[in-house]
Amino acid sequence: MGKLACIFPGQGSQYIGMGKELFQTPSGGKALELAREILGDEFISLIEEGPENELQQTINTQPAILLVSVVAWQQLQEAGIEPDFVGGHSLGEYSAHVAAGSFNLAEALRVVRRRGELMQAADPKGVGGMAAILGLSADQVEEACRLASGHGVVAPANYNCPGQVVISGEKEAVAYAIEMAKGLGAKRAIPLTVSGAFHSSLMAGVGEALRLVLEKVPWQTPRCPVVANIDGAEVFSSERTVSTLIKQVSSAVLWEQSVLRLLDLGVDTFIECGPGKVLTGLVKKIAPDAKLLRIEDKASLEMSLAYLKESR
């Protein structure tokens, strides 16, 4: 029997009303009250009712997605299902560390709220931007960034799946890299609505500020390995937890490499815990033969549990 990995989404998967049915479970209700104590009533009503433009702000999006993702994972845990490995995309790596027992939900909510504040404040003049490049190889996207580097900082930020790489950097350089990518045959190049050049060297200062936050957390040794964004390798210790999360803010997210590593480790079933199905779509392109499950609401939870109970 193959191994099981829980994977957790990052920014961009949020929507108003996410997690509504999961919050009606006993553990979901408890988690919601904990988040209310830590982040306030306004934060909870943002998730439940919006407005959307406020939920989209990094400072709110990050703890909101983490909360829903952890509550989704708790449903699995209560059913007696433990993953062999966990991983997450950018912010999702924090949800993965909660699932691995590296730190608890209360600490995670405080840390990601602060991470969101630092990331949102990192680019007050709005010089940074990001874009998704579709239909080129990773090498071609790297070449487009090299060709644009005379116009400022620009580099790959997310290696999402074959044919989808996100770039990040100074807006002028990103715009130039988009033109270079089109010249190399990109099918599409889509500027992203973000508040900064995430996962680029322009975020190095955020990493240093985040170090002060992360070093105060009473980290535990992960119960199961967490596959890190920065190198697609497993994290087994609290020391490596801190160093990978600091570097992650200004380094590329190696999502494709992380999924390939999980396949090498024997994973054949992936469960996306949290809002949306972005990671499910990416894994399908990287590992077409893998079994893909999701936990986002009551129906997807029941379907996933039924499959897992039968197959395990």
Written account of the structure:
The protein has 312 residues and is of the alpha/beta class. It has 2 domains: 3-122 and 202-311, Malonyl-Coenzyme A Acyl Carrier Protein, domain 2; 128-194, Malonyl-CoA ACP transacylase, ACP-binding (Alpha-Beta Plaits), CATH 3.30.70.250. The protein has helices spanning 26-39, 41-49, 52-55, 58-78, 92-99, 105-121, 138-148, 171-183, 204-214, 238-248, 255-264, 278-286, 298-311, and strands at 3-8, 85-88, 128-134, 154-161, 164-170, 188-192, 226-227, 234-235, 267-273, 291-295. The strands form 2 sheets. The protein has a 6-stranded mixed β-sheet, with helices on both faces. It has a 4-stranded antiparallel β-sheet with strand order 4-5-3-6.
Broad CATH class of the largest domain: Alpha Beta
Instruction: Specify the biggest β-sheet.
Output: 6 strands, mixed
Total DSSP E strands: 10
The helix fraction, in percent, is 40-55%
Low-confidence stretches: none
